[in-house]
Amino acid sequence: MKYKYTARNESGEVQAGVVEAASRDLAIKILQDNKLYILSLESAEKKGFLEGIFPFLRKAKTKDIMIFTRQLSTLVGAEVSISEALRTLHKQLTSPVLKDAVFDVYTDVDGGLYLSQALAKHENIFSEFFVNMIRSAEASGQLEETLNFLADYLERENQLRNKIRNAMIYPVFVVVVFVVVIAVVLTVVIPQLRSIFTETDVKLPWITKVLLSLGDIATSWGWIILIILAAIIYFAVRYFRSREGRAVWDELILGIPVVGELSKRIAITRFATATNVLMRGGIPIANSLEISGRVVTNNLYRRILDESADNIRKGGSISSSFAKYPEYFPPLVVQMISVGETSGKLEDLLDKISAFYNEEVQAAITGVVELIQPALIVFLGLFIGLFIAAVLIPIYNLAQVF
Predict the structure, then answer these.
(1) Is the pTM of this model over 0.70?
(2) 231-256 pLDDT, tens per residue?
């Protein structure tokens, strides 16, 4: 593989070029053996086809970032310098994406940048929330404690995502199998039944006629239908990845029964947790709200939080801003924030909101899982019943004739 590098020689002159090596570590060794001080090193190879279509393939897993953060906190607590800690962790990392990013952070820190400045260059891995927390920790001298909190926060986020992902495995598997079964029935079973029913000239019920028509469409236009569906999915994904499409998607999600309520609770939990921590880290309320909007990720909540930040800068309050959106912030949240603003204990009240809604999210996810499974069973039962009726009724009619 080829790697582009920028480095300083022993005379202090900056050099840039390309080095070829079997791995990144070997490229580093080659440059260091040539007495070059590495400033940056990145792959000169073109990104894979899949990485071009799916940018998330170049993102590190939350679990890997959490482990890295926890280990960095431990090394900092052991009074190891940031530069040395990063260099040590770089050797131990197994995630290629995170390993490359940590190396760049290490070289930047070794070159004189603050840790927060070096992390900010990798926004696809280290979020704005993460970077701002490190920045506030550097100012307050509480880097170890902040890294520990970030590791705990990332661990909770990872657990939440895993719970949601695990809850969706069974429904997705059932739906995929269901679609495959329908395809086989329409393209293989139904055409064979048509020849039998046509030869006997038996009277067909409406459900059988519908299935026969769908079978004709599937066998005659199947590939065209698949191509059209693939095109629709492709352009839909592209649209919903755009700024306008993302806003539309977020609004649609919040409008879905059950799922929308779960999304709102997750957004409130993330808002309360992030704002609480940022404020405790010494970041002003208005800035904390803006950063929390990026953590929430939902565009509607982000817009509300940005509006609230502007309101605070004009002398307003968070509770008065949230009160305008009762469909997104329940009265309980508004009331608790109002009490916190009045008593001067906003951080404590945000902590309580975070804990309360975190429990609500866990209960809601469990409820959704318990609701999905019987709903799928009922749906599949209805389909199987209709299919059996479509086949057995004509056969029964045929038996009556003979």
Answers:
(1) no
(2) 998 998 888 888 788 888 888 888 88
